[in-house]
Design goal:
The chain has 172 residues and is mostly helical. It has seven helices and no strands. The relative contact order is 0.15. Keywords: Signal. Pfam families: DUF4142.
């Protein structure tokens, strides 16, 4: 089961990478990839935040690993705050998962034990790599001052989360 879950996580990562390479080959697509419109940014952040919070609540219930438990608690706190900060910009984030995030949650809900831990770590790694890239892009090219400030202020916490998850991976 662990191999299946890791394979799913790896395939999600490869699919994201393939899409990025495809966009990079087309100059117009590459330019579009360097700019994220505010509504799309808000939508992506809201879905990602929900994934971070809900997957971490599952980790608190399902994982027996102390490092994962501590990380999950931190994710719930920080991403709840990020959601509040996003709303404070005047944006109204949607309350639904992007299809990719819904699929990730379904996988997590059905995983148990060490398989759950491995999948949670894989998903957190992928989600934070994507979030850091998204926030950096919007912070540098966004068109809404309040949302750009939110992106800039939130980015250091996301980078810290990336470092934290890398340390957990290194211990395993």
């Amino acid at each position: 089961m662990k191999q299946v879950l890791s394979a799913v996580a790896i395939s999600l990562l490869l699919a994201s990478s393939a899409m990025a390479q495809e966009k990079a080959g087309d100059p117009d697509m590459a330019a579009a990839a360097m700019k994220v419109e505010t509504p799309k940014f808000v939508e992506m952040v809201a879905s990602s935040n929900m994934l971070e919070i809900e997957s971490s609540k599952l980790a608190e219930k399902k994982s027996k690993d102390e490092d994962i438990q501590a990380f999950a608690k931190h994710m719930i706190k920080d991403h709840t705050k990020a959601g509040e900060d996003l709303k404070a910009t005047g944006q109204t984030p949607p309350i639904k998962y992007a299809p990719k995030h819904a699929a990730m949650m379904k996988l997590l809900e059905n995983a148990e034990g060490k398989d759950f831990d491995a999948l949670y770590i894989d998903m957190q790694t992928q989600a934070h790599m994507e979030a850091v890239m998204l926030f950096r892009t919007y912070a540098g090219s966004g068109d809404d001052e309040k949302v750009v400030a939110f992106a800039k202020n939130t980015l250091p916490a996301l980078e810290m989360h990336m470092d934290h998850i890398k340390k957990i991976v290194a211990k395993k």
